[in-house]
Amino acid sequence: MYDKFAAYGKIRYVKCVRAHFAMEGSERHNGSAFVQFISTENAQKVIDLATNSDSNKPSFLIQNEGIRLGGRQLNITLAVDRNEASKLRTTDKKEKIDKKNAYLAREGLIAADSDVSASMSTEDKDKRMRAYQEKKKKLKNPNYTISKFRLSIRNIPQDWDEKLVKACALKHTQTKLEEQGGKFDAPVVSQVKIIRDKIRTDKEGKPKSKGFGFVEFNDHESALACLRALNNNPFVFTKNQRPVVEFAVDDQRKLHARNKRLERNSKRQEQREEQRALQLAEAKEHEAADVEQEQQMVQGNISDSAEQTTKPDKKRKRKKKQDSEVGDSEINASNLNGSESAQPLTKKQKRKLRKNERQVNRLLGLPIEKKELKEASEDDTKEKNSKQKKNKKDVQSAKEINNTEHTESVQTTTDKKKKRKGVQLTKREKKDVKEDEQFQKLVNNYKKKFFAVDNEKSQEIKKRWYE
């Protein structure tokens, strides 16, 4: 150093600044030194040479510029005294950013030797000390920070719910801010949560409160005012059970996961809203198209109605023909062998016709409507009554025949077997009798249908019947 700067003028001394970690007697320096020239002119020349060089240029372009030592370019400035050096140090220092908000850790803490702690219960003192120790342990972990907006409240009564806690917090913060004076906005509570026990329940079946919870504000000023108003206040809960209020400790990992979850939910909600808007637009388009179609149909119906007034209605004519044919088919001939003198059917004959039609439909597997079932039930009841009357008449006639020894008469198999004294019909014989009766009814039904009307169609039907 001395040889290098001696080329620019006479030097009084050169002194290197020793490193703070260097041992005593070692010549290790921290990269800086002081050089004192005898004349101020020589010192100014050295400073001018050092300041004229461009330090931003690469080393191969500034080999002949400035003052270099051991391949390194030297930064040379005028030395100052100690007072000015201390001032420069304070200005050059950057303000430390407290990312953890550690200055809020002692907010709300009550010392054990203070006058305020004398009126506190031992339980509250123990709770405060335990909470402070837990907070200190958590803050050693870089993932934990103190929230500026969220407060933790202990000693909450079991009867209180979120609404009461919110109302109490807003009331006391409002009064505290008014006492402080100045301009302020109305306090806003964004979230209130009471921690509850999932296992234990109260009389109503709801989970019991654990006695502590959280209150979150939108700004730091209202949160600080709430803490100072509620903390250790004997008029909020009870004298022996005072609120223990402090700024809550947040886990940044959980907050990060929560923010991500909220972002996902917001994106999903936006997508749903977009889908709803698209659906509404499509619905409106369909409605407009339907309205246009209805208008076109109305116009077409008006033109069709004008044409239909001039032309005869073919469908009505067909219905009239069908009705006339049905009316003709209901007319039954007095003689089933095809006599021309036709008479209208009696109620009894119509009932038999309906029953035979239902039996045919069942055999063919055709469906039966509810109306037909109701008619069938009514017809069955009427037939039962008529059969009972017939049986009574048959019994009376049989007695008369036995007494008068009447000649041979046409009797059914059932009447013959009834005359046998001491003989009863078996189940098989009963089934045979029923089947014979049903078959005869079917035959009679077809005869009535086929021979009721004399037309060209009826002749063809007769041929098929005989075949």
Task: Describe what you observe in this structure.
The structure is a single chain. The chain contains 13 helices and ten strands. It has helices at residues 2-6, 40-52, 82-92, 122-140, 162-180, 220-230, 252-310, 314-330, 347-364, 370-404, 413-419, 427-451, 456-466, and strands at 11-18, 29-37, 68-69, 72-73, 144-154, 189-201, 207-217, 244-251, 331-333, 342-344. Strands 6-7-5-8 form a four-stranded antiparallel beta sheet. A two-stranded antiparallel sheet has the order 1-2. A two-stranded antiparallel ribbon has the order 3-4. Helix 5 (162-180) packs across helix 6 (220-230). It is elongated and about 170 Å long. The termini are far apart. 9% of the residues are buried.
